[in-house]
From TrEMBL:
It comes from the Bacteria. Gene3D superfamilies: Spore Coat Polysaccharide Biosynthesis Protein SpsA, Chain A. GO terms for biological process: lipopolysaccharide biosynthetic process. Pfam families: Glycos_transf_2. GO terms for molecular function: transaminase activity; undecaprenyl-phosphate 4-deoxy-4-formamido-L-arabinose transferase activity. The lineage of its organism: Bacteria, Pseudomonadati, Thermodesulfobacteriota, Desulfarculia, Desulfarculales. Residues 13-173 form the Glycosyltransferase 2-like domain. This is UDP-4-amino-4-deoxy-L-arabinose-oxoglutarate aminotransferase. Keywords: Aminotransferase, Cell membrane, Glycosyltransferase, Lipopolysaccharide biosynthesis, Membrane, Transferase, Transmembrane, Transmembrane helix. The chain crosses the membrane at residues 236-257, 269-294. The keyword Cell membrane applies. One of its GO terms (cellular component) is plasma membrane.
Length: 319
Protein backbone atom coordinates (compact mmCIF):
# COMPACT_ATOMS: atom_id res chain seq x y z
CA UNK A 1 0.00 0.00 0.00
CA UNK A 2 1.26 3.52 -0.75
CA UNK A 3 2.19 5.72 2.20
CA UNK A 4 -0.15 8.43 3.42
CA UNK A 5 -0.14 11.57 1.30
CA UNK A 6 -1.88 14.91 1.36
CA UNK A 7 -3.97 16.48 -1.38
CA UNK A 8 -1.07 18.76 -2.30
CA UNK A 9 1.31 15.80 -2.43
CA UNK A 10 -0.35 12.99 -4.39
CA UNK A 11 1.14 9.54 -4.63
CA UNK A 12 0.82 9.28 -8.42
CA UNK A 13 1.53 11.91 -11.08
CA UNK A 14 0.60 11.31 -14.72
CA UNK A 15 2.38 13.44 -17.34
CA UNK A 16 0.69 13.76 -20.75
CA UNK A 17 2.23 15.75 -23.64
CA UNK A 18 -0.41 17.26 -25.92
CA UNK A 19 0.00 18.47 -29.49
CA UNK A 20 -3.13 19.07 -31.57
CA UNK A 21 -5.23 16.41 -29.84
CA UNK A 22 -8.55 18.25 -29.51
CA UNK A 23 -10.50 15.19 -30.68
CA UNK A 24 -9.10 12.91 -27.96
CA UNK A 25 -8.73 15.02 -24.82
CA UNK A 26 -12.25 14.79 -23.38
CA UNK A 27 -12.40 11.01 -23.73
CA UNK A 28 -8.81 10.66 -22.49
CA UNK A 29 -9.46 12.57 -19.27
CA UNK A 30 -12.76 10.85 -18.65
CA UNK A 31 -11.24 7.38 -18.98
CA UNK A 32 -8.16 8.33 -16.95
CA UNK A 33 -10.33 9.77 -14.15
CA UNK A 34 -12.52 6.67 -13.95
CA UNK A 35 -9.43 4.44 -13.84
CA UNK A 36 -7.50 6.38 -11.19
CA UNK A 37 -10.51 7.20 -9.00
CA UNK A 38 -11.04 3.46 -8.69
CA UNK A 39 -7.42 2.96 -7.58
CA UNK A 40 -6.09 3.22 -4.01
CA UNK A 41 -3.76 6.11 -4.92
CA UNK A 42 -4.18 9.85 -4.69
CA UNK A 43 -3.28 11.32 -8.05
CA UNK A 44 -2.76 14.29 -10.31
CA UNK A 45 -2.44 14.66 -14.06
CA UNK A 46 -0.20 17.24 -15.74
CA UNK A 47 -1.09 18.11 -19.32
CA UNK A 48 1.67 19.87 -21.25
CA UNK A 49 0.41 21.70 -24.34
CA UNK A 50 3.33 21.52 -26.77
CA UNK A 51 2.33 24.54 -28.88
CA UNK A 52 -0.97 23.17 -30.21
CA UNK A 53 -2.60 25.08 -33.05
CA UNK A 54 -6.10 23.64 -32.56
CA UNK A 55 -8.50 23.95 -29.61
CA UNK A 56 -6.48 21.66 -27.33
CA UNK A 57 -5.59 24.41 -24.82
CA UNK A 58 -9.17 25.63 -24.53
CA UNK A 59 -10.36 22.07 -23.87
CA UNK A 60 -7.62 21.55 -21.29
CA UNK A 61 -8.63 24.75 -19.49
CA UNK A 62 -12.21 23.51 -19.40
CA UNK A 63 -11.10 20.14 -18.02
CA UNK A 64 -8.89 21.80 -15.42
CA UNK A 65 -11.77 24.03 -14.31
CA UNK A 66 -13.93 20.98 -13.70
CA UNK A 67 -11.38 18.64 -12.14
CA UNK A 68 -8.89 19.71 -9.41
CA UNK A 69 -6.68 16.72 -10.31
CA UNK A 70 -5.66 18.44 -13.57
CA UNK A 71 -2.72 20.83 -13.83
CA UNK A 72 -1.67 22.56 -17.04
CA UNK A 73 1.55 23.74 -18.66
CA UNK A 74 1.60 25.57 -21.99
CA UNK A 75 4.61 26.12 -24.23
CA UNK A 76 5.02 29.23 -26.36
CA UNK A 77 5.64 26.99 -29.40
CA UNK A 78 6.20 23.37 -30.33
CA UNK A 79 9.37 21.85 -28.79
CA UNK A 80 8.64 18.16 -29.23
CA UNK A 81 7.27 15.32 -27.15
CA UNK A 82 10.33 14.74 -24.99
CA UNK A 83 10.70 18.41 -24.03
CA UNK A 84 7.01 18.45 -23.08
CA UNK A 85 7.58 15.47 -20.80
CA UNK A 86 10.58 17.16 -19.20
CA UNK A 87 8.39 20.19 -18.48
CA UNK A 88 5.88 17.89 -16.82
CA UNK A 89 8.64 16.24 -14.79
CA UNK A 90 9.55 19.64 -13.36
CA UNK A 91 5.98 20.05 -12.06
CA UNK A 92 5.23 16.60 -10.63
CA UNK A 93 4.56 16.17 -6.91
CA UNK A 94 3.97 12.43 -6.81
CA UNK A 95 6.28 9.70 -5.60
CA UNK A 96 5.47 7.66 -8.72
CA UNK A 97 5.34 9.25 -12.19
CA UNK A 98 3.68 7.76 -15.27
CA UNK A 99 3.99 9.13 -18.81
CA UNK A 100 1.15 8.64 -21.26
CA UNK A 101 0.45 9.80 -24.81
CA UNK A 102 -2.69 11.82 -25.52
CA UNK A 103 -3.71 9.94 -28.67
CA UNK A 104 -5.46 7.07 -26.78
CA UNK A 105 -3.35 4.46 -28.58
CA UNK A 106 -1.95 3.58 -25.15
CA UNK A 107 -5.13 3.06 -23.09
CA UNK A 108 -5.17 4.97 -19.77
CA UNK A 109 -6.67 1.84 -18.20
CA UNK A 110 -3.16 0.33 -18.31
CA UNK A 111 -1.70 2.87 -15.84
CA UNK A 112 -2.52 0.84 -12.66
CA UNK A 113 -0.77 -2.19 -14.15
CA UNK A 114 2.45 -0.19 -14.53
CA UNK A 115 2.25 1.27 -11.02
CA UNK A 116 1.61 -2.16 -9.49
CA UNK A 117 4.65 -3.56 -11.29
CA UNK A 118 6.78 -0.62 -10.13
CA UNK A 119 5.77 -1.32 -6.52
CA UNK A 120 7.34 -4.76 -6.82
CA UNK A 121 10.69 -3.00 -6.45
CA UNK A 122 11.58 -1.65 -9.88
CA UNK A 123 12.86 1.88 -10.51
CA UNK A 124 11.42 2.03 -14.04
CA UNK A 125 8.71 -0.04 -15.71
CA UNK A 126 8.29 0.18 -19.47
CA UNK A 127 5.25 -0.78 -21.46
CA UNK A 128 5.69 -3.21 -24.33
CA UNK A 129 3.11 -2.86 -27.10
CA UNK A 130 2.45 -6.55 -27.64
CA UNK A 131 -0.05 -6.13 -30.50
CA UNK A 132 0.69 -2.87 -32.28
CA UNK A 133 -1.91 -1.29 -34.53
CA UNK A 134 0.59 0.61 -36.66
CA UNK A 135 1.84 0.33 -40.22
CA UNK A 136 4.99 -1.57 -41.14
CA UNK A 137 6.68 1.77 -41.88
CA UNK A 138 6.21 2.65 -38.20
CA UNK A 139 7.07 -0.77 -36.78
CA UNK A 140 10.42 -1.18 -38.54
CA UNK A 141 11.97 2.11 -37.27
CA UNK A 142 10.66 1.38 -33.77
CA UNK A 143 12.26 -2.07 -33.88
CA UNK A 144 15.51 -0.47 -35.00
CA UNK A 145 15.35 2.09 -32.16
CA UNK A 146 14.83 -0.72 -29.64
CA UNK A 147 17.84 -2.65 -30.94
CA UNK A 148 20.13 0.39 -31.05
CA UNK A 149 19.01 1.68 -27.64
CA UNK A 150 19.41 -1.72 -26.00
CA UNK A 151 22.97 -1.88 -27.33
CA UNK A 152 23.87 1.71 -26.41
CA UNK A 153 22.29 1.78 -22.93
CA UNK A 154 23.00 -1.84 -22.03
CA UNK A 155 19.41 -2.57 -20.96
CA UNK A 156 17.58 -5.05 -23.18
CA UNK A 157 13.95 -4.04 -23.79
CA UNK A 158 11.56 -5.08 -26.53
CA UNK A 159 9.98 -1.66 -26.98
CA UNK A 160 11.83 1.60 -26.37
CA UNK A 161 9.27 3.55 -28.37
CA UNK A 162 6.35 3.08 -25.99
CA UNK A 163 5.80 6.20 -23.89
CA UNK A 164 3.52 4.39 -21.44
CA UNK A 165 6.11 4.08 -18.67
CA UNK A 166 6.30 4.39 -14.88
CA UNK A 167 9.19 5.93 -12.91
CA UNK A 168 10.13 6.37 -9.30
CA UNK A 169 10.45 10.00 -8.31
CA UNK A 170 14.19 9.67 -7.72
CA UNK A 171 14.73 8.69 -11.37
CA UNK A 172 12.55 11.58 -12.58
CA UNK A 173 14.51 14.06 -10.45
CA UNK A 174 17.79 12.72 -11.85
CA UNK A 175 16.53 13.13 -15.42
CA UNK A 176 15.29 16.66 -14.71
CA UNK A 177 18.73 17.57 -13.36
CA UNK A 178 20.29 16.54 -16.69
CA UNK A 179 19.92 19.83 -18.52
CA UNK A 180 20.71 18.52 -21.97
CA UNK A 181 19.30 20.40 -24.93
CA UNK A 182 18.01 17.15 -26.41
CA UNK A 183 17.66 13.75 -24.87
CA UNK A 184 15.80 10.47 -25.33
CA UNK A 185 13.85 9.91 -22.11
CA UNK A 186 13.52 6.07 -22.09
CA UNK A 187 17.27 5.66 -22.58
CA UNK A 188 18.12 8.39 -20.06
CA UNK A 189 15.87 6.81 -17.43
CA UNK A 190 17.53 3.43 -17.83
CA UNK A 191 20.93 5.01 -17.21
CA UNK A 192 19.77 6.18 -13.76
CA UNK A 193 17.66 3.16 -12.80
CA UNK A 194 19.09 0.25 -10.84
CA UNK A 195 16.30 -2.09 -11.95
CA UNK A 196 14.13 -1.90 -15.07
CA UNK A 197 11.01 -3.95 -15.75
CA UNK A 198 8.91 -4.40 -18.86
CA UNK A 199 5.32 -5.59 -19.14
CA UNK A 200 2.95 -6.06 -22.10
CA UNK A 201 0.35 -3.31 -22.52
CA UNK A 202 -2.57 -2.88 -24.87
CA UNK A 203 -2.30 -0.76 -27.99
CA UNK A 204 -5.20 0.67 -29.96
CA UNK A 205 -5.64 2.20 -33.37
CA UNK A 206 -5.66 5.98 -33.46
CA UNK A 207 -9.32 6.97 -33.35
CA UNK A 208 -8.90 10.63 -34.30
CA UNK A 209 -6.20 13.00 -35.48
CA UNK A 210 -2.96 11.91 -37.07
CA UNK A 211 0.42 10.76 -35.86
CA UNK A 212 2.98 13.43 -35.00
CA UNK A 213 5.93 11.08 -35.64
CA UNK A 214 6.85 10.69 -39.30
CA UNK A 215 9.81 8.87 -40.80
CA UNK A 216 12.05 11.96 -40.68
CA UNK A 217 11.36 12.50 -36.98
CA UNK A 218 12.12 8.85 -36.26
CA UNK A 219 15.42 9.14 -38.15
CA UNK A 220 16.28 12.28 -36.15
CA UNK A 221 15.40 10.41 -32.96
CA UNK A 222 17.87 7.67 -33.91
CA UNK A 223 20.63 10.24 -34.47
CA UNK A 224 19.84 11.89 -31.12
CA UNK A 225 19.98 8.51 -29.46
CA UNK A 226 23.27 7.41 -31.02
CA UNK A 227 25.10 10.70 -30.51
CA UNK A 228 23.59 11.56 -27.14
CA UNK A 229 24.44 8.39 -25.24
CA UNK A 230 27.52 6.88 -26.83
CA UNK A 231 30.61 7.50 -28.95
CA UNK A 232 30.12 4.02 -30.44
CA UNK A 233 29.16 5.35 -33.92
CA UNK A 234 32.44 7.26 -34.21
CA UNK A 235 34.38 4.24 -32.95
CA UNK A 236 32.64 1.95 -35.45
CA UNK A 237 33.35 4.37 -38.30
CA UNK A 238 37.02 4.53 -37.24
CA UNK A 239 37.32 0.74 -37.31
CA UNK A 240 35.48 0.65 -40.63
CA UNK A 241 37.91 3.26 -41.99
CA UNK A 242 40.89 1.11 -41.05
CA UNK A 243 39.32 -1.95 -42.71
CA UNK A 244 38.51 -0.01 -45.87
CA UNK A 245 42.06 1.36 -45.99
CA UNK A 246 43.43 -2.18 -45.77
CA UNK A 247 41.05 -3.40 -48.45
CA UNK A 248 41.98 -0.43 -50.63
CA UNK A 249 45.67 -1.15 -50.16
CA UNK A 250 45.16 -4.79 -51.06
CA UNK A 251 43.12 -3.87 -54.11
CA UNK A 252 45.80 -1.40 -55.21
CA UNK A 253 48.49 -4.09 -54.98
CA UNK A 254 46.23 -6.43 -56.95
CA UNK A 255 45.84 -3.84 -59.74
CA UNK A 256 49.60 -3.24 -59.89
CA UNK A 257 50.34 -6.96 -60.19
CA UNK A 258 47.55 -7.36 -62.76
CA UNK A 259 48.97 -4.51 -64.82
CA UNK A 260 52.43 -6.12 -64.79
CA UNK A 261 51.00 -9.48 -65.84
CA UNK A 262 48.18 -8.53 -68.23
CA UNK A 263 49.27 -5.07 -69.31
CA UNK A 264 47.28 -1.83 -69.62
CA UNK A 265 43.48 -2.24 -69.76
CA UNK A 266 40.38 -0.08 -69.31
CA UNK A 267 37.75 -2.74 -68.54
CA UNK A 268 38.05 -2.13 -64.81
CA UNK A 269 37.16 1.56 -64.95
CA UNK A 270 33.54 1.06 -63.92
CA UNK A 271 34.60 -1.17 -61.04
CA UNK A 272 36.88 1.59 -59.82
CA UNK A 273 34.03 4.10 -60.09
CA UNK A 274 31.77 1.83 -58.03
CA UNK A 275 34.44 1.46 -55.34
CA UNK A 276 35.02 5.22 -55.39
CA UNK A 277 31.31 5.88 -54.83
CA UNK A 278 31.36 3.54 -51.81
CA UNK A 279 34.31 5.43 -50.33
CA UNK A 280 32.69 8.81 -50.98
CA UNK A 281 29.46 7.63 -49.36
CA UNK A 282 31.35 6.49 -46.26
CA UNK A 283 33.19 9.81 -46.09
CA UNK A 284 29.89 11.70 -46.21
CA UNK A 285 28.57 9.44 -43.45
CA UNK A 286 31.61 10.23 -41.30
CA UNK A 287 31.19 13.97 -41.90
CA UNK A 288 27.50 13.69 -40.97
CA UNK A 289 28.26 11.87 -37.73
CA UNK A 290 30.96 14.37 -36.79
CA UNK A 291 28.55 17.19 -37.56
CA UNK A 292 25.91 15.60 -35.33
CA UNK A 293 28.34 15.42 -32.40
CA UNK A 294 29.59 18.96 -32.99
CA UNK A 295 26.01 20.20 -33.27
CA UNK A 296 25.14 18.66 -29.90
CA UNK A 297 28.20 20.27 -28.31
CA UNK A 298 27.28 23.62 -29.85
CA UNK A 299 23.73 23.43 -28.49
CA UNK A 300 24.99 22.52 -25.02
CA UNK A 301 27.62 25.27 -24.70
CA UNK A 302 25.08 28.00 -25.54
CA UNK A 303 23.13 27.12 -22.36
CA UNK A 304 19.83 28.18 -23.86
CA UNK A 305 16.64 26.99 -22.13
CA UNK A 306 15.27 23.74 -23.50
CA UNK A 307 11.78 25.22 -23.69
CA UNK A 308 9.83 28.33 -22.75
CA UNK A 309 6.67 27.98 -20.66
CA UNK A 310 4.04 30.48 -21.68
CA UNK A 311 1.46 29.68 -19.02
CA UNK A 312 0.68 27.31 -16.15
CA UNK A 313 -2.61 26.59 -14.45
CA UNK A 314 -3.27 24.76 -11.20
CA UNK A 315 -6.46 24.15 -9.28
CA UNK A 316 -6.94 26.18 -6.10
CA UNK A 317 -6.48 23.06 -4.01
CA UNK A 318 -3.17 22.22 -5.66
CA UNK A 319 -1.71 25.69 -6.23
Amino acid sequence: MPPAVTQNQPYLSVVIPVFNEEDNLVELHARLSVTLNASPWSWEVIYVDDGSKDASWELLCRIQGQDPHARLVRFNRNYGQHMAIFAGFEKVRGQVVVTLDADLQNPPEEVPKLVAKLEEGFDVVSGWRQERHDSVLRKIPTWLVAKVTSRVVGVQLKDYGCMLRAYRREVVDAMSASHESSSYIPALANLYASSVGEIPVAHAERAAGRSKYGILKLIKLNFDLMTGFSVLPIQMVSVLGVLIALVGLGFGLFLIIRRLVVGPEVEGVFTLFAILFVFVGLQILVVGLMGEYLGRIYREVRHRPRFVVRETRDSEAGS
